[in-house]
Amino acid sequence: MSDQPDLSEIKRRKSRNVQEQVAVLRDSILREATWWRNNPIAPAIRESIERNGKDVSTGILVNVCDREFGLEDCADGIFVAASGQFFEFSVELTPDGDKLIAVHQFDDVTDSLEICGHKPGVGATWAFLVIEVLKELNEKSDTEDGASSR
């Protein structure tokens, strides 16, 4: 039996050590990325990503703000391609999200991020954890695809 507390217990704590902070952050990234994989994104967002030659099905979306109050019909966030490249996007779409009006931004921001698995005082950086989650979800997807094709 493990003496490690479970993630729900760690989340309730006011004070966490570095490993616990990393575990909570990784869980948050995994939950968001999984949500966007399991729930359809607006067709216009998908179109903007695919127009830039990226495969939505093998990448993940993080930090997405999809037409929240006061932002009109804009959506923005970060798409992480299977290659590990981070693309910051901002798009304008119709109110129903079906049609793309304009792509205001689709920039590779990978070089501006710190991708480190062992940073003193922090543990793993956010970008490093995003790439870990991306790999995990793609491996899981490959395993499920392989099992379903038998």
Write out key terms for the chains shown.
150 residues, alpha+beta, 4-stranded antiparallel beta sheet, 4 helices, 21% strand, globular
Architecture overview:
The protein has 150 residues and is an alpha+beta fold. It is 39% helix and 21% strand. Strand 2 and strand 3 (86-93) form a beta hairpin. Helix 2 (18-38) packs across helix 4 (126-148). The N and C termini lie far apart (36 Å).
Please give the alpha-carbon distance between the first and last residues. Answer: 36 Å
Provide the residue-averaged pLDDT: 85
Instruction: Kindly estimate the percentage of residues that lie in beta strands according to DSSP.
Output: 15-25%
Low-confidence region ranges: none
- Computed over alpha carbons, the radius of gyration is 17 Å
- Helix/strand/pairing category: alpha+beta
Output the number of helix runs: 4
| Share of helical residues | 25-40%
**Major β-sheet profile:** 4 strands, antiparallel
Order of helices and strands: HHHEEEEH
Overall outline: globular
Q: Strands across the major sheet, in which order? A: 1-2-3-4
How many strand segments? 4
